[in-house]
Amino acid sequence: MNQTIEILRKRKSVREYENREVSAEVRAEILNATLRAPTAGNLTLYSILEVTDQSLKDKLVTTCDSQPFIATAPMVWIFLADYQRWYDYFHVSGVEELCAQQGIPMLKPEEGDLFLACCDALIAAQTAVVAAEALGLGSCYIGDIIENYETHRDIFNLPPYTFPIGMVVFGYPTQTQKERIQTPRFDQKFIVFENQYRSLDRDEFNEMFFERQKFISKNKIAEGIDTFGKATYLRKFSAEYSAEMRRSVREMLKVWKK
Ligand SMILES: Cc1cc2nc3c(=O)[nH]c(=O)nc-3n(C[C@H](O)[C@H](O)[C@H](O)COP(=O)(O)O)c2cc1C
Asked: Alpha carbon 143 to chain centroid distance?
């Protein structure tokens, strides 16, 4: 099998790390590969905030829904959607005066710009994940960085037109993690459509979740809950962390909508 395809197909999230630092050379390789990720308009609408201070990693454990393994990861990168750099540069390069001369208002970044910046940041994040994987490191996304906007803004000194859209923690996988079986995926026919979107019917959902149900009950995640739909609604969609995520994003959007 092609080596890149093999890396992609064998990847899994890693949440337990060997007590081993990431060398400066390996870090540089990952970073250089990451910075080659595609970026909308070649604008680099993201920043990477590397968290090296152990007390900040410890704080992230709490602010990201109590996930202790964050504190044990030797490398922690927060991917910020970032329009602040361009907005600052527009000011520095005289856009305000230009707009005044032309009698037009100087625009501020809005939600659409945020979406594009989020695309950039996440594409960079996934590039880092793949580069790390190629060098023997495991990684795990921490989506909960989207929560607690105000706290993260304050502890990381984030200016208004930035938003931490993803965090990835990296480290060398322990033997147990290396041996852990991969999580299942849905069959392609439920995920890939041709030309037109198609909603699934009850039978298709039953078929789609048949394999997943076995995986879930084996992992005792859905004990006492008879469908994966109910379990997922309770564990994910209506969970406390989801409520906090929604609140946090609403708060952040107030800044971008001003
Ligand atoms: C956007 C995003 C957010 C995630 N957030 C977390 C998280 O906060 N904690 C965690 O342990 N895993 C997190 N993950 C990892 C997923 O749980 C994992 O990718 C999924 O269960 C599939 O497992 P696999 O990556 O091993 O194939 C996240 C993944 C993504 C893409």
From this structure: 5
How far apart are the CA of 130 and the centre of ligand 1, in A?
Answer: 14
Ligand 1 centroid to residue 103 C-alpha, Å: 48
* Whole-number Å distance between alpha carbons of 100 and 160: 23
Q: Is 143 in the pocket of ligand 1 (CB under 6 A)?
A: yes
Quick: pLDDT tens for 224-247: 666 788 888 988 999 999 999 999
The whole-angstrom separation of Cα 147 and Cα 73 is 20
Radius of gyration of the chain, Cα coordinates, nearest whole angstrom: 21
Site to substitute for ligand 1 among 72, 126, 139, 141, most atoms within 8 A of C-beta: 141
What confidence tens digit (pLDDT) does each residue in 137-193 have? 999 999 999 999 999 999 999 999 999 999 999 999 999 999 999 999 999 999 999
Angle at 116 between CA 36 and CA 244, to 5 degrees: 110
67 close to ligand 1 (CB < 6 Angstrom): yes
Ligand 1 centroid to residue 90 C-alpha, Å: 36
List the chain domain ranges. 3-181
Reported residue count of the chain is 258
Topology of domain 3-181 in CATH is NADH Oxidase (3.40.109)
